[in-house]
Every structure is written in C-alpha cells, then in structure tokens.
What we know:
By secondary structure, the protein is mainly alpha-helical. It contains 7 helices and 5 strands, in the order αααβββαβαβαα. It has helices spanning 3-6, 12-29, 56-68, 94-108, 130-137, 149-157, 175-207; strands spanning 76-78, 81-82, 88-89, 115-119, 142-146. The protein has a 3-stranded parallel sheet with strand order 1-4-5, with helices on both faces. A two-stranded antiparallel ribbon has the order 2-3. The protein is elongated and about 65 Å long.
Amino acid sequence: MNIERESKLSGKTHDKGVLILSGYIGAKYAQERQLSLSASICFEQPYDGVDGDSASSTELYATLSSLSGVPIKQGLAVTGSVNQNGEIQAIGGINYKIEGFYDVCRLKGITGNQGVLMPKSNLRNLMLRPDVVEAVKDGKFHIYAVSSIDEGMEVLTGVAAGERDSAGHYQEGSINDLVEKKLRQFSEQLRQFAPTTNSTEAATSRSE
Length: 208
C-alpha cells in the first residue's frame, strides 16, 4: 500500500514505481506458494506531494530489509528506478542528487562511511564538482554503482544476497533466503488460519 497515493500526495509515475515492487516480489519469491503479504510504504512528513520513480529501488530495499530483519546502513543515500526483474534503471539529475547529499554530509560532518548508491547505467552521466571528486579519491565519500537489487542489498547491508542452487534453495543466511523464509512463514500462518475460520463459519451456520 502506497500511503502517499492513499492520501493523494503522489503522482502517477510514483504510484507506478510502487506497484512494480509487488511484481518483483511475486516473481522472485511466490513461484511455489501463495504470496501472503501486506506492506505499507511512506515518505515521512512530506506535505507538498511526491512524484517520479527514482525512489522505487529505495522502497524495495526498505521492504526487503524489513522482511529479512537485516538493517540497512544509514550513511548511504539511494537513488534509482527498478523494473519487475530487479534491474536498476537510470534516473535524471544524478549529479545534483549526489552533490546534494554530499553537501548535507559535509555540513553534518564527514565520517568516511557516507556515500550514494546510484544506477550503473548513469555512470556516463557523472560530471561532479571537484570537491566531491576529491572526497571520493580520498575515501571520505563513496559512490556505488549497482545494476540490480541484489547488488544494492549487498552494499547496503554487508550481507550476501544469495543465489538459488540446483535444488532451488537460496544460500543459508543470505538476504533472499531470509526474505523467502519470512514469506513462507506468512503463508503458513495464513494456511493454518483459514481452516479455523471456515470451521467457525460452518459451525455458526449449523447452529442457525
């Protein structure tokens, strides 16, 4: 559920970006079982509305972090659109976004752990200010170019994303493994709850 859309604070492009997330999760984790998931996404305290799909990868990272229980590094900013295959797509204004976050970090204090995740396809568009380039060269600020959600999750969490083996299982303890286990747990809980509900309705019907 896109809270911005429900409160009429988002545009069509942003709404589309959020809807793509359900397509990705369904295709990757719900091939063998029913997807039983209810999630809500919100940008806290925006009052002027939001549009564009540049944050769709960020929203997916947050969802996967919540499902896996693995926290995301808070010193990294993220930009990039995502498609239903989990591929990170190019976005506009990449230089302004990186420079803007660098300025925030500079004002708050450079720690050496801050940086930006950006689409790999935007590398050819980089024309950053000299001070940002120097900070990157000195290792004070970092720019990570990723081409997929799995790559991004590894950078953001420090945990392997995991690939399916010949038996169709993800590497134990990987992000994808933890997400799949959580979704399997949700599915089992729903399956166990459903017969109880049906039995109760049947008993009520007989008593009437």
